[in-house]
């Protein structure tokens, strides 16, 4: 009995201009979601991206798909910042610092709550991006802790809460208006993470699972 040879299918690659258009749409959407919220008209996003409405809908058939892509992209980019810092310097605390500051620049604190409150937070793409980010940050924190750089009583959940709170503008204040304060305050927070600890924290280290149950 002969085994059938699988048919080899040629996978077509997106054209370079199509990839550029997709990236422009994601960048414009990220900016406008932060400025105006997740309900900003999609044709306004297309206009800022410099593409037609048909191009936007060809890439993202509905608003949910576009929001998911924006949030996944932001999580991927912040995780990559920590990964690159670790590869370039070998210093886990420097990698952690770069992740924290890049998270603020990417507006992760403004974008992630959109998924938590409005969209399907259990979508496989979001779950995968979140898991990659959590695992990477957990690894960087563990390395910094093993090197004696990071205090022992903090968890990934502690870090994510603090970054979100410190980089989110107060109600009624645009992100751009507080940018000059954000990195200053984040650096104060990072200094407080360094070992040896100068105080004892109440409670126990917050994990990602603690955040999900909250």
From TrEMBL:
<feature type="DNA-binding region" description="H-T-H motif">
    <location>
        <begin position="41"/>
        <end position="60"/>
    </location>
</feature>
<feature type="domain" description="HTH tetR-type">
    <location>
        <begin position="19"/>
        <end position="78"/>
    </location>
</feature>
<dbReference type="InterPro" id="IPR050109">
    <property type="entry name" value="HTH-type_TetR-like_transc_reg"/>
</dbReference>
<dbReference type="Pfam" id="PF21597">
    <property type="entry name" value="TetR_C_43"/>
</dbReference>
<dbReference type="Pfam" id="PF00440">
    <property type="entry name" value="TetR_N"/>
</dbReference>
<dbReference type="InterPro" id="IPR036271">
    <property type="entry name" value="Tet_transcr_reg_TetR-rel_C_sf"/>
</dbReference>
<dbReference type="InterPro" id="IPR049445">
    <property type="entry name" value="TetR_SbtR-like_C"/>
</dbReference>
<keyword id="KW-0238">DNA-binding</keyword>
<protein>
    <submittedName>
        <fullName>TetR family transcriptional regulator</fullName>
    </submittedName>
</protein>
<keyword id="KW-0805">Transcription regulation</keyword>
<dbReference type="InterPro" id="IPR009057">
    <property type="entry name" value="Homeodomain-like_sf"/>
</dbReference>
<keyword id="KW-0804">Transcription</keyword>
<dbReference type="InterPro" id="IPR001647">
    <property type="entry name" value="HTH_TetR"/>
</dbReference>
